[in-house]
Design brief:
The structure is a single chain. The protein is mainly α. It has 3 domains: 1-187, MFS general substrate transporter like domains (Growth Hormone, Chain: A); 199-255; 265-496, Growth Hormone, Chain: A (Up-down Bundle). It has helices at 2-32, 35-41, 51-63, 67-74, 76-95, 100-114, 117-128, 134-162, 167-170, 173-186, 200-219, 229-251, 265-295, 300-317, 321-325, 330-346, 361-370, 372-383, 391-431, 436-444, 452-492. The longest helix is centred in the C-terminal third of the chain and has 41 residues, at 391-431.
């Protein structure tokens, strides 16, 4: 009886941490849909509003490498309670920001707290649950990882239209209070048996490296990439910091992230599949949101209706995943899920001026059904080859690959969209048989020999068709990301030697968490 009660309390705490991770991921996309409203309210230029995303994501990525050391030295319970409290405090601060600069600062600290919650959720599942219950825990975690980006964009649009943008931050406060109570009650207090020293060299390399990489990816396209000196500097710092970090961490006795886990080719390839999933998942949301807003002029609320068709079906499928994984192979499940994701993406490629809104519903549903078959089994494939001692490192690797994959996907898509739009625009003008002199006149809308209204309509039509063709190319590119993921999973099935289950440093004897 006591054992059952202790296990139920433990599940209460784990669900609390997972929901905290859900809130952290939700907050990435919930703000993305309201950037223009926030910029207008805080009296700043719309193009600067992207720094609210950059600040959050940069801080989020930088926080990830600290998790392992904090959990070993402070304890899981104390770390989780601290970051939830900080997340709530800085959410309240964001809602009360008085100017754009203060908002960027508060968003950075909010991201610093929120960025730790996803790896903490994975760590709690892998260290507190017995092996036979981890698949159920992973199914719950998959909601945070795959549903939150979609639901966040939808919720942000609805809140902005209904109550105003400040409520996208205030909505975090009541759940945070419940989560604090759940974690305090459910996660047992345990003092680590042995303190771990912080690998300061690795820390000094990875923090600026990841920060520079995130800024490079988020801001590169809007500043013409290597044509801007400070963007070039960010790229050099990112490359140098990450390469040197990998070299030093691989040899360190107590690394921040145990990179020796990547010695197992299956873990290595699965991590790259997670990277590709981040590109495809966040890239899809980015394309759908931008396509409906910029090409068809949809309001945030209408875009929310489209995105919900990608979120709600996942919530209906995920509860059945633990039972399904007992009857189907995890590798086959991941491949089937990616194939469904690929099908839904390819159905979005034949875009036309009438293809919007409800025309995306079937595609969204197919993508949504596929995603639970990807993330839960993919997490199982990774954790299957990792010891409990290396659970924090495994969770950090998954989170880093997913976050950097998402940022990379959006950066690549932004650049491709811009360049393909220019290409299609010039091609369409040539097809229309316009001479160069008339093209200049059309672009500047200074025409004496043509009706101005007709010229404006013609120019609008050419721009619209070029944009539609560019977004179609974007969905084809996402299909390429998914094919890359499938290739990674197929290659895990090819035996390449035999490796031990624990690829890391010798396990340090730690005290088991217990509760009465």
């Amino acid at each position: 009886m006591n054992g059952t009660l202790a296990q139920n309390r433990q599940w209460l705490g784990i669900i609390g941490i997972i929901f905290g991770a859900f809130m952290a991921v939700l907050d990435v996309q919930i703000v993305n849909t309201c950037l223009s409203d926030i910029a207008a309210s805080l009296d700043t230029a719309p193009e600067k509003a992207s720094w609210l995303m950059t600040a959050y994501l940069t801080a989020e990525v930088v926080a990830i490498p600290l998790i392992g050391v904090l959990v070993h030295n402070v304890g899981l319970r104390k770390v989780v309670l601290a970051v939830i409290i900080l997340f709530a405090i800085f959410s309240l601060a964001c809602a009360n920001a008085w100017n754009f600069s203060s908002m960027v600062v508060f968003r950075s600290f909010q991201g610093l707290a929120g960025g730790t919650l996803i790896p903490l959720a994975l760590t709690s599942i892998m260290t507190l649950l017995p092996q036979q219950q981890r698949t159920t825990g992973m199914a719950c975690f998959a909601i945070a990882a795959t549903c939150a980006p979609t639901l966040g964009a939808a919720l942000g649009g609805w809140l902005a239209e209904t109550w105003g943008w400040r409520w996208i931050f205030l909505i975090n406060i009541p759940p945070a209070l419940f989560l604090i109570a759940m974690v305090a009650e459910g996660i047992p207090a345990a003092t680590p048996a042995k303190k771990h020293t912080i690998h300061s060299t690795g820390l000094l390399l990875i923090l600026p490296g990841l920060a520079a990489l995130e800024i490079f990816l988020e801001e590169g396209n809007s500043h013409n990439w290597f044509e801007t000196p400070w963007i070039t500097a960010c790229g050099i710092i990112a490359l140098g910091g990450i390469v040197l970090f990998c070299l030093t961490e691989y040899r360190a006795r107590h690394p921040l992230i145990n990179l020796r886990l990547l010695n197992d080719h299956r873990v290595h390839l699965c991590c790259w599949a997670v990277f590709g999933l981040g590109m495809a998942l966040y890239g899809s949301i980015f394309l759908i949101t931008q396509y409906h807003a910029l090409v068809h002029g949809f309001s945030p609320g209408h875009i929310a209706n489209v995105l919900l068709w990608m979120g709600i079906p996942q919530l209906m499928v995920l509860p059945f995943m633990p039972r399904l994984l007992k009857t189907i192979n995890a590798d086959a499940s991941v491949i089937a899920g990616f194939l469904l994701f690929l099908t839904g993406t390819l159905l979005s490629t034949p875009l036309t001026s009438d293809f919007a809104g409800e025309h995306f519903y079937i595609n969204q549903i197919i993508r949504a059904i596929g995603q639970p078959f990807i993330f839960v089994p993919l997490s199982v494939l990774i954790t299957r080859h990792v010891s409990d001692h290396d659970a924090p490192s495994a969770s950090m690797l998954v989170d880093v690959f997913l976050a950097i994959g998402g940022a990379t996907g959006i950066a690549v898509l932004s650049t491709v969209l811009e360049r393909r739009m220019d290409l299609h625009y010039h091609n369409l003008r040539e097809v229309a048989g316009m001479n160069s002199a008339l093209l200049i006149e059309l672009n500047n809308l200074r025409m004496d020999t043509i009706d101005p209204l007709s010229a404006t309509q013609l120019l609008h039509t050419v721009n619209e068709q070029a944009a539609i063709m560019a977004y179609s190319d974007g969905f084809f590119l996402i299909a390429g990301f998914i094919v890359f993921c499938i290739a990674c999973i197929v290659m895990t099935l090819i035996p390449i030697g035999s490796r031990s289950r624990n690829q890391g440093t010798p396990p340090v004897k730690t005290e088991k968490c217990s509760s009465s």
